[in-house]
Amino acid sequence: MPLYETVIIARQDLATAQVDELSAQLQSTVGSLGGKTAKTESWGLRNLAYKINKNRKGHYVLYHFDAPPQAIHELERTMRINEDVLRYLTIKVDEFEEGQSAILRQRDDAEEGYGSDRFGSDRGDRGYRSRPRRDSSDTGEEA
Question: For residue 98, is pLDDT > 90?
């Protein structure tokens, strides 16, 4: 069977328990049509790049499905109807990524103190410095 990755964004005003319930419903939809869920990751409540239906944040959840195409079509139809799902994206992949996703690895690195900016690199003192001031002796003018 083909392998699929799906990421959903659920409304910000849902409780974590409600997001877990929504996740279970979506997994049962795929399971009832002959697919199986290989992995589920909850990325938590994250900021959106822009407002979606008056929401500034959303609960992100990643799924890895091993399912026939009919199950994925039914899953997407269910997500389109559900008012709690703001956005979703499903892609077909050749193989699943082993271990944690990049989002969770980045969060773990930040918690351990690696890197000082949001991209995980340590800029040290090279960061946002202004140019040095020029004295009157640097201008070449004679006093």
Answer: no
